[in-house]
Every structure is written in structure tokens, then in C-alpha cells.
Amino acid sequence: MKTKTTGAGRYLVWALSLFLATSLLMGCADGKGDSDSTAGDTSLMSIPPLFQRTGELAKADEWPRTIAKLDELKAKLAKDPNDVKARLQIATIYMAEARITGEHPYYYPAVLKILDGALSIDPRNFEATTFKASVKMSQHQFAEARDLAEQARQINPDNAYVYGVLVDANVELGDYEQAVAMSDKMQAMKPSLESYSRASYLREIYGNYPGAISAMQLAVDAGLPGSEPYCWSKNTLAQLYTVTGQLDKAEREYAEILAIRPSYAFAMGGQAHVQRLKKEYDKALTTLDKAAAVMPEVSFHEEMAEIYALQGNEKKAADKYAEVVTMLDEDAQSGHAVDLEMCKLYTKMGKLDSAAVYGQREYDRRPKNIDVNQAMAALAFKKNDLKKAQEHIETAMRTGSKNPELLRQASEIQMALGNEQESKKLVAEARKVNPNPVL
Fold first, then answer.
1. 200: nearest Cα among 243, 158, 159
2. For 327-353, how does the pLDDT look when each residue is reduced to its tens digit (9 = 90+)?
């Protein structure tokens, strides 16, 4: 089971770095490691089995090809266990499967084992080091991911992909200026779906929604129709339309994704969120059930809980929130850092002491990140600690973000502090971005 990542309310935004790794071996064979002909620790050499798909995902056209390709690569390794390229190709297959199936607790440790095996053969292998940074990003181990990406950059400073990982890591660690610098380098080296999507997110962080939408449309246009990266880009474009109140455009994007890839669960989840915003709660729950049947994505279940709460069904909401806690615990056991998600979840549930434990732990790691500070502001506000709430919300808004939910939250804090005019100003700013009520 898997969680959603942090980032301006989007689901799994920077997990993009993980599935985009599948294009790295196809597009760059310029790693500069010096291969050692003798394998290292033999315990690292075995390849974990492929996690078998079930249901709709097992019917996808690429699944038989995936199995066949894996068999081919394993046959190569049977002949030459030191074939690093074959190991890396298997790693890319498993990274893509993690993205498609949502079985991250299985695939993340499996991929790391494969990569450590490759690195035991070739310790300075650029691709293996960069892939490992991507996996650490998806596990929310952001500082380690940045260190690994920097190591990869030292090996090969002329590859655009590693700058994308550095964008992601610096965003999550709250070093936004450095993230912009890395994005500019990536754009200059290789304009692509990967670079356009990162430029889009940075524009969003800095409050430029028209620019973010424009850049994400470029990412869509650069993608191969029907591919997972293409669908991800369209899905993110739809989310941007949703945030800015353009629900008809969002629905069109989701429908187009599902026409090409009917089992794309994230598009179903996006459709459900739009249905929720339209107060079509029963319809949204049905759509979320369908999405959850395809993929064990935590955000689907969390949205169900929120909808139950909106319907006034506190028992169902509480049960579903408890289920989400269990899912997050399973993620944590596989090495996925979920403290921010736990903080947000327990804040919603009103379990503020638990929320504070998780929130402080995440804040200690990432005190400059705007999403972490937004979560800490929400927690402090619920605890009626208005001074701390104001401090955190000011940090969360330091990039000039125009996210309507963030502005609404800041407005509530200002109203509670007695700053009515400032509160109204923030509401007006939010309505410029999205004229519809924020839920």
C-alpha cells in the first residue's frame, strides 16, 4: 500500500521522479562509473520476484510484455551475474510497477536491493546512484536523496535527469531557490516532459498558476500518448484546473486519460474529487471504490473518510480514518517516512497530541518546507495556539503561494487574531484563483 506525497495538495507529485527513471536508461548511456568485473556481496545479487498483478491491472496490455522482458533480463543475468545494465533495466521495470500498482512496500525495498547489487559491482555507477536517489525521494527520505543525487552529479554533471532529482529533493527540504536553479539547469540541458513538469510545480509554489498550467500543458504535449508519464502529466494538469476552479476542464482531462488507459486509478481519484466539490457525494464514493479496487492508494481512502464526514456519518468517517492509519503504518514499516501524513491525519481526527508528535518529528527534519509549516499551522490553530499558527503560516506563505486552501487557512488565523481586514484580503486573493468555495 502506498501514501500520497507532500506538495501543494497534489497526490504523488514528486513520485514523478520515480517512474520517470524508466526513461533514463533508454535516453542516456553516459554513466561514467568504472565497472569492476567481480561482484561484491553475493547476498545482494539475487533478484526479488515480480509482484503479481491482479484484477484490472493484470489485463493491461503491457503486463505480458513486462513479464517477458523480465524473463529475458534474468536469463542474461544467469549467464553473466555482473551485467549491471541488465540489473538496472530490471530496476526500472520494478520502479514502473511500483508506480502503476501502488505496491510500494514491496517494490521499494526490492528496487533498493537490486540497486545495491549493481553498486556492489560498480560503486560509481551513475544510473544506479541516481535511481537510488529517486527511490529515496519516493520514500520521503529527502536529505539522503539529495546527498545521493549530489554524488551522481559529481560522477556525471552533464546529465539532465539528475538535476530533476535535485529539484525534487530541494523542494521537499524547503530550499526553493536552489530548486529553481536546478530546474533552470535541467531546462537548459533537455527541455522535456520531466523538465516542464518540474517548472510547472515551481511556478505553482511561487503563486503563478497560469504559468504552471502552461508548463504542464507543455509536459503533456511532450509525452507519448497513452504512456504512464503522459497520463501522469494530464492528471496533474487536471489537478491544476481543479485547484483554480476550472472543473469542466479538469473533468475533460480525466475522461481523456481513462479513454486511453481505463485502469488509471489516479484519474478516477481526480474524478471523485471533482464530484465531491460538486457535492455529488454518493457518486464520488462509488468512483473512489472503483479506484481503490485498482490500487491501494491511501489518498483514495482518506478522501472517502472526508466525504463521510461531510455527509455527517461520523462512524464511517472514523472507521475509514482508522483504516488509513493502518495503511500508513504499513508504509512506514517498509521504510517510507509518513510523519507529515500522520500529522495531517490525526489533526483531522482531532487527536492533537498524536498529531503534534508526528508533526514535530517532520518539522525537525524539514523546518523550511511550506507544506510542513502549513500542517503545523493547522495543528496549532486547532490547539488554539494562535501565535504559533501565525508563525507557521507565514513560513508556509513565504514563496508567495496562491493556493486557495492555504489562503483560506491564513484567513482563518487572521480572523481569530482579530485582523478582520487582513482576513478579508486573503479571502479575496483566494477567490481570484478559484471563485468557488474551497472544500
1. 243
2. 999 889 888 899 999 999 999 999 999
How many CB atoms sit inside 10 A of residue 180's CB?
19
CB 35 within 8 A of CB 152: no
Residue 430, C-alpha cell as written in the block? 483566494
Beta bridge partners of 2: 297
**32-87 per-position pLDDT tens digit:** 444 444 444 556 689 999 999 988 889 888 899 999 999 999 999 999 999 999 99
Angstrom distance (rounded) from CA 129 to CA 94: 16
Selection from 339, 332, 333 nearest residue 360 by Cα: 339
d(CA 380, CA 396): 13
Q: What is the DSSP string of 307-324?
A: HHHHTT-HHHHHHHHHHH
State residue 17's pLDDT score.
Answer: 40
The secondary structure of residue 373, as a DSSP letter, is H
Q: Are 413 and 386 in contact (CB under 8 A)?
A: yes
Q: Are 258 and 56 in contact (CB under 8 A)?
A: no
Here the cell at position 4 is: 500520497
pLDDT > 90? residue 391: yes
DSSP code of 51? P
Q: What is the distance between the alpha carbons of residues 179 and 323, in angstroms, rounded to a whole number?
A: 35
Give the 3-state secondary structure of residue 297. Answer: strand
Residue that the C-alpha cell 508533526 belongs to: 359
Residue 401 in this model has a pLDDT that exceeds 60: yes
Place of cell 533508454: 26
Least confident of 2-11, 52-61, 263-272: 2-11
User: Where is 267: in which H helix or E strand?
Assistant: helix 265-277
C-alpha cell at 236: 496533474
CA 44 vs CA 41, 82, 109, 336: distances in Å: 6, 12, 12, 21
Q: Cα separation of 85 and 48, whole Å?
A: 17
CB 42 within 8 A of CB 69: no
Report the percentage of the chain scoring pLDDT > 90: 82
Cα distances (Å, whole numbers) of residue 154 to 31, 34, 158, 187: 11, 14, 10, 19
| Sign of the C-alpha dihedral computed for residues 401, 247, 321 and 99 taken in this order | negative
Burial class (CB in 10 A: 0-12, 13-18, 19+), 246: middle
Q: Rounded to 5 degrees, what are φ and ψ at 335?
A: 100, 5
Under 8 Å between Cβ of 18 and 99: yes
User: What is the SS3 assignment for 2?
Assistant: strand
